[in-house]
Design goal:
- With 274 residues, the protein is α+β, with helices and mostly antiparallel strands.
- The strands form four sheets. Strands 8-7-9-14-15 form a five-stranded antiparallel beta sheet, sandwiched between helices.
Length: 274
């Protein structure tokens, strides 16, 4: 975990802002009838406009420019011909590579109106991320940060994925340390001011068992329960994690619900975004 100087932090902040901007651009296109491949094409276009590229494309042989994980898919879903249906949820993991640095961000979105338990899952997972970011201050042990996420999930009855979590970010998309979603308070590496880390809680409505599909990437829940995944990249400061994407705290679920009546009538992404 490298301590970044101010010039590097400024560049990384811009990479984070690009990723956040693309999320804002793509959200109106997440409607019934759109395919995950069409969403990917929007991201590719916006990366080009911003002078950036996808961190994912070709990474360890990873297909696609984004990760698009639906319903019971926890992480690493591959975009393609799948069509979103009213009531689905989908996680879009977007990472921008800009001038030698990465900005990583994932959000789970409702497709129009979703069931109450799915809406609660999204709200709570996003809230867990906000709580964890607030606690990502200098002189905090990683185990304490991880325990915050674990406790948040357990108190609300969610399953978690022990094998997956956040990570350091910088010139490489995945750097040390691993930021687990489960941990023991007071244990693990001490955070210092300056490093950039991605925090990413992943909660499930059911149990914590997962399996990988035959595509070699997509991870799904064994019991078929739906999963949510929220991720932001922050810089560790004396007062907690400072967001590097310039994006104020928002509630993705409620923002989407405000447009749900309109979204339910749409069958394709808005043409202005295609």
């Amino acid at each position: 975990m490298t301590i970044k100087n101010q010039a590097e932090l400024d560049t990384m902040r811009e990479a984070g802002r690009i990723a956040a901007w693309i999320h804002a651009e793509i959200e109106p296109a997440i409607v019934p009838g759109v395919t995950t491949g069409e969403l990917e094409r929007i991201v590719v276009d916006r990366l080009r406009v911003a002078g950036a590229s996808s961190s994912f494309y070709g990474y360890l042989g990873l297909p696609g420019h984004i990760r698009a994980s639906e319903k019971d898919e926890v992480v690493h879903g591959i975009p393609g011909r799948r069509i979103l249906q009213l009531g689905d949820i989908i996680t879009l993991d977007i990472s921008a590579y800009y001038r030698g640095f990465h900005g990583d961000s994932a959000w789970t979105y409702p497709v129009g109106i979703v069931a109450d338990d799915a809406a609660r899952l999204l709200r709570d997972t996003e809230a867990a991320l906000s709580v964890a970011i607030a606690g990502a201050g200098a002189n905090t042990r990683l185990g304490s940060l991880s325990h915050t996420i674990e406790t948040f999930a357990e108190q609300r009855g969610y399953g978690m994925v022990p094998a997956y979590g956040g990570h350091g970010v910088g010139r490489e998309m995945h750097e040390e340390p691993h930021v687990a979603n489960r941990g023991e308070p007071g244990r693990g590496q001490m955070l210092r001011s300056g490093p950039k880390i991605a925090i990413e809680p992943m909660f499930m409505l059911g149990g914590e068992e997962t399996r990988q599909l035959d595509d070699g990437w997509t991870v799904v829940t064994v019991d078929g329960s739906w999963a949510a995944h929220f991720e932001r990249t922050v810089v560790v400061t004396a007062d907690g994690g400072g967001n590097l994407d310039g994006k104020a705290g928002t509630n993705v679920t409620m923002n989407a619900y405000a447009r749900a009546g309109q979204h339910a009538l749409l069958v394709r992404a808005p043409s202005r975004l295609m």
